[in-house]
Amino acid sequence: MSRSQASTEWGEPTNGWRLSLSLDRATYAPDEPVVATIRFQNVSDHAQQLGGNGRDFDHDFSCTGVDGAPTPLTAYGKLMVENRGLGKATGGTLPPMGEISVQVPVSRHLDLSMPGRYRLEARRQVFANEDPAAPHVVSNTVEFTRSQ
Fold first, then answer.
1. How many angstroms separate the CA atoms of 9 and 20, rounded?
2. What 3-state class would DSSP assign to 33?
3. Domain CATH code at residue 101
C-alpha cells in the first residue's frame, strides 16, 4: 500500500525539482525484494525539460546499515553505474507540479542481505549523464529493517 500524496515526504527542492522515496512497508523478510517508489516532480512555476536512461540507470542510492557503514553495490548495481548513458535515452517536458513515478528494485542495486536496520536515500540529475559536478536532486531518507 503506497502513501497518499498528502503524506508524501520529499527531499529539499533543487533548481525547481524535488524527489520522493518511499517503501510500501518498514520490515522485509530475508530474501524479499525491497522495491522503492521514486517520484520526481517539477515544483517550479513553468514547464521544465528532463532526460534520463531508464529507471535502473537514473538514480543513485546512498544506503547505510545499522553500523553506519555504506551498503555496497551488487554486481548488477555496479553494472548500472558503469553503463549509464549506453542505453536508451528518455526525456520530455513536465508542467508545473507534473511528475514521473517509477518503481526501482533497490535490492538488485544494493547488497541488503544482512539483517538489521538500513537508511536509504535516492538522488538523480535532471538530465542523465550531466557533468558529475552538476546539482543532484536528493530525496528524503527512509528507514527499513531486514529481518533475520
1. 6
2. coil
3. 2.60.40.2360
